[in-house]
Amino acid sequence: MKHMLPLIRRGDGRGAIINIASVTGIRGSGVFVSYSASKSGLIGFTRALARQCAAANDGVRVNAIAPGIIDTPIFARLEGVAGTSSQDASASAAGLVPLGRPGRPEDIAHAAVCLASDEAAYVTGIVLPVDGGLLTG
């Protein structure tokens, strides 16, 4: 980040940094402890850097996206964890997520496009859950 930030600041006075965190960085996980801890640290880093950039008045915004259960290769690796098959993992995810399905990579991409857009010019320091409502319960 220390090498990238000066490059962003040399631009047109606008910029957006979007970190990819995780809902486990918000609520923790008893199974993936190291992963949760690293994502929690990234959330703290996002907020601290957002404050630093805002204080510098350099037009750089810093936010994070916190994906929930997303149908990616990481999700596919749940097969075999605690004796689950990939079908069991999908069924379990559907039961946990209020919207009834795992997310898709494009769900995360759409959130990133929104945060990077000029329409989000007054948004900095947030963590946007893209989790199908997982954190609601």
TrEMBL record:
Q: Does the keyword Oxidoreductase apply?
A: yes
GO MF term list: oxidoreductase activity
Q: Which Pfam families match?
A: adh_short_C2
Coiled coil spans: none
Please indicate if the UniProt record lists Oxidoreductase as a keyword: yes
Keyword annotations for this protein, in alphabetical order, are:
Oxidoreductase
Question: Where exactly are the transmembrane stretches of this chain?
Answer: none
Q: Which InterPro entries match?
A: NAD(P)-bd_dom_sf (IPR036291), Sc_DH/Rdtase_CS (IPR020904), SDR_fam (IPR002347)
Q: Can you tell which superkingdom this protein's organism belongs to? A: Bacteria
Tell me the protein family, please. Belongs to the short-chain dehydrogenases/reductases (SDR) family.
Q: What's the protein called, per UniProt?
A: NAD(P)-dependent dehydrogenase (Short-subunit alcohol dehydrogenase family)
Q: Which organism is it from?
A: Sphingobium jiangsuense
